[in-house]
Fold:
Amino acid sequence: MADRPLKPRTCDGYTHLVSRYLPPAFGDTAITAITPRIVRKCWPGLDQATPTVNAPAYALLKAVLTPSPSSLRRR
Structure:
């Protein structure tokens, strides 16, 4: 995500998702330690009554956990 600048509102939305909705599912796990395996294990812990929040939270996690083409070239 460092490949492109985020608009302030987008950044605020991501910060809100990470601080408000992801901690119940991931607890004290550092965001840098979250792996796809941990997401699959913890995802059911999200409140199933809030699918309109869960969808963008999943999209954010996917974006964070998916390597960008430029980061793959650096390896």
